[in-house]
Amino acid sequence: MRVVVENSLNEETTIHWHGVRVPNAMDGVPHLTQQPIDSGGSFVYKFDVPDAGTYWYHPHQRSYEQVGRGLCGALIVDEVKPIAVDRDVTWVLNDWRLQPNAQISDDFGDFMDVSHNGRVGNTVTVNGRILETFAVRSGERVRLRLINAANARIFGLEFHGHRPLAVAYDGQPVEPHEVPGNRVVLGPAMRIDLVIDMTGKPGERFTVIDTFYRGQEYRLLDLTYESAPLRGRPLDGSIALPANTQPEPDFTSAQRHDVTFGGGMMGGMMTAMLHGQSVDMRELMHNGMAWAINGVAASGHVMDPLLTLTRGRSYVLALNNDTAWHHPIHLHGHSFRVLTRNGRPARFREWQDTVLLAPRERAEIAFVADNPGDWMLHCHILEHQAGGMMGVIRVA
Predict the structure, then answer these.
(1) In the chain, where are the structural domains located?
(2) What integer pLDDT is reported at residue 268 of this predicted model?
(3) What's the CATH fold of domain 2-77?
(4) What span, in angstroms and rounded, lies between the C-alpha atoms of 176 and 161?
(5) At a CB cut-off of 8 Å and minimum separation 6, what does 394 contact?
């Protein structure tokens, strides 16, 4: 893949290829893996794409505003032999904080958002539009790729009258299975590939609703059966995706590390390290910060590593969300297996690059540190990242 990025903004930018296991120099993290692209300048990203899957790209420079204003896109890498479906569809889910005149509110980086739930908007779109309906046909099999490009909104989608089967998380194949509770939960930056057999009849409508935030449920759109059936019964054939190329962790020799995420309102964190000094929560907030990883609040992308890992060795990271808020935790340069949640084995041990941690939840992930360089580990609620929940893992 070769992409020439021309920066026509009036500020610096970069591009991060989210979920793609790129060489470190192509990762798009300003000052850590590259110099940011100046206004009027350009940069060429070149890398081999190792795996099929659903990915996306976005800036890592002031991302809480640049992504929040819409700088992002889908990156779809097809399998050599895709599964048999009638349509392959991508929905980029996003939300926007709009003023009464429909302009984007420019209160980016508001400290209330930083210290609480992030910038949750008031208007939700699919591929940049407010959709009322999505037309389908009876007997049709659809591969639906969902990408959550929102700054902070977590989606919990219910497809009434249908039975979506998950076939990939974050672009990585998983054993096909029904989503828990028939609700597709997707934190910021996360992706899921669904296979849905359309079993309704011509003229019927079925609602897709978002029920994640209690008391704030809303209708996303309706699936509408508008034409003659495509076929009389569901399509035959396997929907299991071929495996990608991640190396399997060696659990007999894996080294273990604990990583704790702290801070935020109602979090109980009393002190943190900022610019090499221990400060109390009041001083941290005075500096516009509210979050920390292992007691360190990041004030930029360049910092001492949280962990230094040996290239080629297997690792288990115990991720502990010691806060009152959700955090989608993203690791650059690698995918990882989710092993446990709160001590219970993950049923599918799914490969992911972003794992959503509920308040006070603990998850164990495992991976082979096979990609050398300095890699970001951060919350993908972009206001939390800007507010300190960001660190570096070095693979050397």
Answers:
(1) 2-77, 87-225, 255-395
(2) 80
(3) Immunoglobulin-like (2.60.40)
(4) 19
(5) 305, 307, 308, 309, 373, 374, 375
Q: Buried (b) or exposed (e) across 36-52, using 16+ Cβ within 10 A?
A: bbeeeeebebebeeebb
What are the angstrom distances between the C-alpha of 244 and each of 13, 18, 79, 172?
31, 16, 9, 7
pLDDT class of 375 with cuts at 50, 70, 90: very high
| Closest alpha carbon to 170 in 33, 367, 343 | 367
Fold classified for 87-225? Immunoglobulin-like (2.60.40)
In this structure, what token pair is assigned to residue 119?
A: 């910038």
Nearest to 139, CA basis, from 218, 49, 200:
200
Q: Is 342 helix (H, G, I), strand (E, B) or coil?
A: coil
Q: Residue 101 has what DSSP assignment?
A: T
pTM score above 0.90: yes
Number of H helices, E strands in the chain: 4, 30
Position of tokens 């850590």?
32
Homologous superfamily in CATH for domain 255-395 = Cupredoxins -  blue copper proteins (2.60.40.420)
Alpha helices in the chain (DSSP H): 63-66, 111-115, 281-286, 382-386
Looking at the chain, the whole-number percentage of residues with pLDDT higher than 70 is: 100
Find how far residue 20's CA is from the centre of its chain: 12
Q: Give me 129's structure tokens.
A: 């539009």
Q: What is the dihedral of CA 83, 84, 86, 92, to 10 degrees?
A: 0
Taking CA atoms, 292 is separated from 218, 277, 298, in Å, by 33, 13, 7
